[in-house]
């Protein structure tokens, strides 16, 4: 085996983890985890398209990200697209928009999600259909719909990236009655592995991140109740919520040169909940 001491053979760390100049799509990017991801990519110099079913909120998030990118002096931009991915009409509308406005997609983040909680014997059918359509069916058709754009962005040493946002509730049994949510995210994890094998020859990596409790508006009701919050954080070996930097750093790794040899993995970004069980 030959080695080299040529410094040009080893990219600087800021280049290794760079997403500058990339085109990214983040579904459900107007708030919560999706907005964190979109902000991180845009501040890293990527052009980020975010989707949301609420047009005003989507536009407001994009404007806030663009203002921050301008202030930071980065070339990153954020573009809002209103689309409800709980229906096939919404998926088709998004895919059509992408083909009209983009020539390729380097990074696709499937983050849009829904949850539903109810007692076991009262759990309604709508709680299954809505959650499965949003969390599992929509990501599949967004991926297949954008495959030509992903293929255009890929090369042998720099693959295009699909990053699915799963959940710790698909790795460790939840303590509440969100049956369809945990099942849909477990399905998304398996779909990630299946598509990773299928798309490897196309130069597309497919990985998933499974967040534990990250403090967003989705967990606002938990943070407002000290007893409930205490019970939640007792499950976390690191004894804290995940922060935006934790999430952004993991996405940036998967989306950059640093993560180009990784596919079919489920990264448990959960403070040790799934890895330290028992």
TrEMBL record:
<keyword id="KW-0521">NADP</keyword>
<keyword id="KW-0560">Oxidoreductase</keyword>
<comment type="similarity">
    <text>Belongs to the short-chain dehydrogenases/reductases (SDR) family.</text>
</comment>
<dbReference type="InterPro" id="IPR020904">
    <property type="entry name" value="Sc_DH/Rdtase_CS"/>
</dbReference>
<feature type="domain" description="Ketoreductase">
    <location>
        <begin position="22"/>
        <end position="212"/>
    </location>
</feature>
<protein>
    <submittedName>
        <fullName>3-oxoacyl-ACP reductase</fullName>
    </submittedName>
</protein>
<dbReference type="InterPro" id="IPR057326">
    <property type="entry name" value="KR_dom"/>
</dbReference>
<dbReference type="InterPro" id="IPR002347">
    <property type="entry name" value="SDR_fam"/>
</dbReference>
<dbReference type="InterPro" id="IPR052178">
    <property type="entry name" value="Sec_Metab_Biosynth_SDR"/>
</dbReference>
<dbReference type="InterPro" id="IPR036291">
    <property type="entry name" value="NAD(P)-bd_dom_sf"/>
</dbReference>
<dbReference type="Pfam" id="PF13561">
    <property type="entry name" value="adh_short_C2"/>
</dbReference>
<dbReference type="GO" id="GO:0016491">
    <property type="term" value="F:oxidoreductase activity"/>
</dbReference>
């Amino acid at each position: 085996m030959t080695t080299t001491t040529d410094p040009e053979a080893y990219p600087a760390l800021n280049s290794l983890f760079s997403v500058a100049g990339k085109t990214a799509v983040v579904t459900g990017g107007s708030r919560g985890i999706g907005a964190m991801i979109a902000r991180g990519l845009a501040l890293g110099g990527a052009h980020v398209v975010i989707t949301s079913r609420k047009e005003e909120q989507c536009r407001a998030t994009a404007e806030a990200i663009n203002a921050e990118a301008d202030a930071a002096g980065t070339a990153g931009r954020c573009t809002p697209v209103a689309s409800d991915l709980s229906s096939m009409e919404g998926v088709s509308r998004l895919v059509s928009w992408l083909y009209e406005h983009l020539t390729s997609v380097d990074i696709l983040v499937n983050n849009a999600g829904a949850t539903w909680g109810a007692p076991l014997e009262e759990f309604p059918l709508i709680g299954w259909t809505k959650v499965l359509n949003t969390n599992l069916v929509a990501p599949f058709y967004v991926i297949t719909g954008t495959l030509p754009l992903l293929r255009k962005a890929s090369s042998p040493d720099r693959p295009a990236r699909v990053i699915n946002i799963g959940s710790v509730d698909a790795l460790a049994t939840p303590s509440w009655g969100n049956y369809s949510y945990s099942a849909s995210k477990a399905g998304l994890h398996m779909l990630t592995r299946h598509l990773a094998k299928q798309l490897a020859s196309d130069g597309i990596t497919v990985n998933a991140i499974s967040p534990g409790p990250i403090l967003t508006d989705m967990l606002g009701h938990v943070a407002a109740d000290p007893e409930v919050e205490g019970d939640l954080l007792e499950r976390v070996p690191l004894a804290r919520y995940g922060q935006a930097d934790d999430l952004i750093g993991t996405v940036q790794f998967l989306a950059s040169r640093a993560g180009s040899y990784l596919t079919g993995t489920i990264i448990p970004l959960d403070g040790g909940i799934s890895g330290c069980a028992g």
